[in-house]
Design goal:
single chain; 282 residues; alpha/beta; Rossmann fold; 8-stranded mixed sheet; AB_hydrolase_1; AB_hydrolase; hydrolase activity; AB_hydrolase_fold; Alpha/beta fold hydrolase
Length: 282
């Protein structure tokens, strides 16, 4: 199997006029394809190859740049709902009738809306480092968090602190993950995300977090099986929101990974991949 670090970037033209950049690893079989939805300011290069390769042992795994992100054309929209509709356009362009979804951080918000906007498209959903729309306390991130990951120039130190924590173990895990993410790729890199993408995505995050408890009722519309997961010390989207999600979703299971921050799925990539594969096998 070609590894994620060696797979080439492809493009597909969608009916909405956007040319989407994507990568695909693993092979089609009985298992449905798994489509991944990326975090704030992330592009194709920001997925951990070790996680992708482990997931791809059992199915086809597809990563992509949504509208205006990285090498995809267009302008990044500033609402989660628009991002979800754009992601559906991408999935339709690939000719896929049913998929599983794995959304990480902002991507997990998008995954929720895809499941609500096109329920017949979605089989199972994984929500990593997630929160429901309208929950109190997520109307924007803490000043230290947005300073660490939201500046004009990305900060490697800020990324490691938010994604892996500041303990010696967290720093070591962050350095190891960064080595895999940024040091293993043998094919051409993706285009970096722009300032327009950063502004639009953070607008989408803050709109998602406007307190509105009536919005929590939307979760009753996600009837597919859902695996909710987070690290126990995530400073960006604290794990209490994972507990809230799992309690409100009709058919959810929850796991909180120990000694882990926002990037728990990279720190615990072997365990998380095994858990996701088991969940998707159903």
């Amino acid at each position: 199997m070609t590894t994620y670090s060696a797979v080439r970037t492809q493009t597909v033209s969608a009916a909405n006029g956007i040319e989407y950049a994507y990568r695909s690893v693993g092979s089609d079989g009985e298992a449905l394809p798994l489509v991944l939805l990326q975090h704030f300011r992330g592009n194709l290069d920001n997925w951990d190859p070790a996680l992708i390769d482990a997931l791809a042992e059992e199915r086809r795994v597809i990563t992509f740049d949504n509208t205006g992100v990285g090498a995809s054309t267009g302008r990044t929209p500033n609402t989660v709902a628009a991002m979800a509709d754009d992601a559906i356009e991408f999935i339709d362009a690939l000719g896929l009738d049913k998929v599983d979804l794995l959304g990480f951080s902002l991507g997990s918000f998008v995954a929720q809306d895809i499941a609500l906007h096109r329920p017949d498209l979605v089989n199972r959903v994984v929500l990593a480092s997630s929160a429901p729309q309208g929950a109190s306390g997520i109307h924007g991130w803490r000043p230290d968090v947005i300073e660490a990951v939201g500046g004009r120039e990305p900060s490697p130190e800020g990324y490691v602190r938010v994604f892996f924590g500041s303990s010696p173990e967290g720093l070591a895990a962050g350095q190891a993950a960064a080595g895999r993410i940024f040091g293993l790729r043998t094919e051409g890199p993706d285009e970096p995300t722009t300032w327009q993408t950063r502004l639009a995505q953070y607008d989408a995050v803050t709109r998602w977090g406007i307190p509105d408890h009536a919005k929590l009722e939307r979760l009753q519309g996600i009837t597919q099986p859902v695996f909710v997961a987070n690290g126990d010390s995530d400073p960006m989207i604290p794990p209490r929101y994972s507990h809230l999600l799992a309690g409100l979703l009709p058919n959810a299971q929850l796991k909180i990974y120990p000694d882990a921050a926002h990037g728990f799925l990279f720190r615990h990539h072997k365990e998380f991949a095994a858990d996701v594969n088991a969940f998707l096998r159903g």
